[in-house]
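FW: tagging you since you asked about this chain on Friday. Here's the raw sequence from the shared folder, copied in full. Didn't touch anything.
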Amino acid sequence: KSGIRKNDFVFCHSDISLFGIPKCNISKQGVSSLFLRSFFKVLGSGGTLIIPTFTYSFPNKKIYDPTRSKNICGFLSSCLQKHRLGRMYLDPNLSCVVFGKLKKYFTTEVSSNAYDENSLFSKFYKLNGKICNFNLDAGSTFLHFLERKLSVKYRFDKVFFGKIKLNNTYKKISSTLFVKPKKQKKQTSFKKFTYYVTKTNVYKKVSLGRGYVGVISSKNCQIALQKKIKKNQYFLFN
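HL: got it, structure written out here
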């Protein structure tokens, strides 16, 4: 009902606790497996699902260890991060676990810039992937990729340095994020973006349990954000 179709490429931010407790005897791990199975009942063998497992390790001056670094993206993300069918995109700040047909395509090469033309987000955009959020607004980290693509004035590329641990060895690397200056006190917000894409019917929202599922395509995200930022550079600010 939300608009996800067979063979789609999906990126999912989530807070599944707001759905409520399923009316069946199921473990916490079972809940995450239930969502994964449900996605692929629709996506089929030709579909791909990307779940963020972000750590922002380097800005926090921590070593990035894919097996131990704290995932800040919630319960579903944490449960699926080590799933045997997933494959990790090992960005030290914006890691993801990818399932499905194109998991190797999305994870084999990790760009040193999280939002450049070689990044996971760029690949997702070129395939017109769909953002499918659970109990969150229409915004997502993907919008930061679009902000960079649209050359907004309030963000800039900043290089962070750190170590990544792989196979019990440590490697020094750099990783670039598109950030706001520290002196910029205003906070960005996706509320106005969500209101606009809902009003223009390019964002579809359907109820599930006590919560909802919301879907918008990456190209529609780009069209909407470009239109609004052209009129007001600070559209995404409170």
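FW: The helical segments are 28-43, 75-80, 103-107, 120-126, 142-149, 191-199, 218-231.
HL: agreed, and Strands lie at 9-11, 48-52, 87-89, 96-100, 130-134, 156-166, 169-179, 204-208, 211-217.
FW: great, closing this out.
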